[in-house]
Write a structure and sequence with these properties.
mainly alpha; Four Helix Bundle (Hemerythrin (Met), subunit A); Arc Repressor Mutant, subunit A; 3 domains; two-stranded antiparallel sheet; 19 helices; 2 strands; 2% strand; elongated
Length: 434
Amino acid sequence: MDKGPFHKDENDKNFDNKEDEDGSDFSPLSAPTDLTNEGQLITNFKRSGDNSEASKDEAFSYLQEIAKTPLLTPKIEKELFAEFGNQRKDVTRLLECFPDSILENSKPKVNRRRCNKDGLTGVEAWWTPMNISVVIENMEKEIRSYKLRMYGDFVPSLEGIEVNDEIEDDFIAKPILEKLWIELNRAVSHVQETKNAIVQANLLLVASIAKQHNHSKSALTFLDLMQEGSIGLMKAVEKFDLARGFRFSTYATWWIMQAIKRALDQQSQTIRIPCYVGETRRTIEATRAKLARELEREPSNEEIADRLGNIDVERLTEIVQSTRRTVSLDSPLSEASPDATISDLLADEDQSSPEDELLVNADKESLERVLNTLTEREKLVVQLRYGLRDGSEYTLAEIGRRLGISRERVRQIEDEALRKLRHPTRESLLKEIL
């Protein structure tokens, strides 16, 4: 049963990551984004106040650059996608001509659920325009190994000898292999050129959607959102089915929005949370806002859970707490001042204040006056024993070697100095310092 051009299930939204799943549904925009006036889009962005001036200027220049690529007319769009489909078939046909031993070790990691859903088999099940660069890189290594194995000097002539059936089935003449390799690279270049042309012509669509999610509280800058949205756009190019008769921009909007939402969910938290938790949090916040308007007060978690109906209070509390934003002390204060961080605003408890410095200096001067009442040798022994000279405390033996006297004599000098310091006059001064 045909479920419609915009039907999607959990496999459709996988983005090659099993954890990137949520329960949001796609529906065509009731009023598709108007991109016919790209100049207005750029002007509106320049006037917005959601970005720093430095970041805004950089994004403004980028928008001016992508606006130079004209939008696709319906006719050209159909021609490009028809050509894109034929080029993909050419790549598939050429890949199927290579020996199995080369292809088997050139396969990238594939999403089995996507293959099962799309009913893909053979070569089509594991190559896509997004991973073809990896496939070509792997094949280049495998072909070098294959040539050494099949055409090397150590391989005897196959003529007149019995050859293993498996080797015979896997064998391909060297001129044919080299010709296939050249044709495959040419076909892949055509696929990538056509795909890039479609992507370039639709970057303004990404810009318009990224602008909707770019605000002062956004965890990502506009250019970051553009990058994430472009990934969704490239995914949409591969998924789009021209036979369904819809405009590509309508179909691509969902993929772009999903890519941006996933990026915001995954990169706005210090600890990454699953996408479905982020979706549930948004549903909770929407319900909270609706109840606040109805009740004219802040609703409790019990009231929110009761309204949602499919979640208990304990689980609701866990989700709300797990999605609380944290702020890194190394985060820049603003994009205009990337070198200034939040930690610069916090008081350093290990750093002395000017008042503390004055008190410490005053205490040092008072202590110095008290020690000056002792003899030079007594003063030096006390300073060395208690770290009053350079911050290091010395033993009796170390002080003795330094002064050229015995350890016992140092102890006697120390006892005499301490006895003098216990005099009521000196003791009262020391108590004031302490």
